[in-house]
What we know:
The protein is an all-alpha fold. It has one domain. Helices cover 81% and strands 0% of the residues. The protein has helices at residues 10-36, 40-66. The radius of gyration is 17 Å and the shape is elongated.
Amino acid sequence: MxxxxxxxxxxxxxxxxxxxxxxxxLFFIVGMILLSKSKKTAAKIFFILAALYLxxxxxxxxxxxxx
Length: 67
């Protein structure tokens, strides 16, 4: 019954970390670009989205990794 064994799961960890950290970095970069174009309201919204996504992502994905 070798087909039921779990093998190397390093790729899964990399995908979870990418989902956890990737979008907040992207939102932050978009916010910095909009801030330089003097669209301060839109930049603040992207900064808030980045912070919320990072907080929720670290909570949910961090719980999945630690369990």
